[in-house]
Amino acid sequence: MNAAMRATACKVTVLTSRQCSNSVRSSLARCSAKAPAKSFCSGKPIQLQRLSTTSIATRQQQFRKLSCTSSSEAVPEAAAPEAEAEPLLVDKLDIRVGKIVKAWVHPDADSLYVEEVDCGEEDGPRTICSGLVKYVPEAELQDRMVAVLCNLKPRNMRGIKSNGMLLAASDEAHETVELLSIPEGAAIGERIKFGTQDAVQQDPGSPNQVQKKKIFEAIAPDLNTSAEKVVRWKDLAMLTSAGEVKAQTLANGKVS
């Protein structure tokens, strides 16, 4: 190597690794100041913003508030439970569809019939005494479908124990009395209800409860027939699975 080349080499500045790193950072800073960075996807300038510690904390709080608001809006409040319908007093009566299989005049009481009534029970037909001789011909009772009040305590009627009561409609003067008409298709033994077909019927009271609390006496004044001859308790229709129970001819009458 000649003298001229050695002089040139001596002028070359040797940079340490630390100086090189500082130099690179300074160069990058100058470049970014002159020309903003561009997105690889769009080629458009990207606006870079340095967030302070305070700004980051503020953004976090705003995000938490938005999250809580969204959660509360997404989950609706639980609806209040519907109040259960108050049980009907008339449900304490066990009224069933029955069929008279045999009827005759009471041997010791000219005003009474004795009927054997099939109510669909395992122990066979019930024996019932009713004071219908004056109002209903004996022939009309044979094989007739009837409404039977079943949860009454048995009563001794002139030597024959009566186990139930046939329900009938009457006018105000009680001069006309007729058995209730059961709609065709109703099943023997089915329980009759008041209200609507989908109404939940409460369990009936025991014969002792009905007698002790005088339940039938409390209900009877509100048993009636409508202008369309539908049997009702207050304004609730008497129903079987086949439809409404009606009086034969008596509108705006009483039922007992």
Strand content: 15-25%
Derived structural class: alpha+beta
Helix content: 25-40%
Number of helices: 6
Radius of gyration: 47 Å
Spatial strand order of the main sheet: 3-2-1-4-7
Number of strands: 15
- N-to-C SSE string, H for helix and E for strand: HHHEEEHEEEEEEEHHEEEEE
Largest sheet: 5 strands, antiparallel
Globally, the shape reads elongated
Unreliable segments of 5+ consecutive residues: 7-21, 31-42
Structural account:
With 256 residues, the protein is of the alpha+beta class. Helix content is 25%, strand content 23%. The protein has six helices and 15 strands. It has helices spanning 3-11, 17-34, 53-74, 138-141, 207-212, 215-219; strands at residues 95-105, 113-118, 126-130, 145-149, 155-157, 160-162, 165-166, 168-170, 177-179, 193-194, 223-225, 231-233, 236-240, 243-244, 254-255. A five-stranded antiparallel β-sheet has the order 3-2-1-4-7. Strands 10, 11, 12, 13 and 14 form a five-stranded antiparallel β-sheet that branches. A hairpin with a 5-residue loop joins strand 11 (223-225) and strand 12. The longest helix is centred in the N-terminal third of the chain and has 22 residues, at 53-74. The chain starts with a helix and ends with a strand.
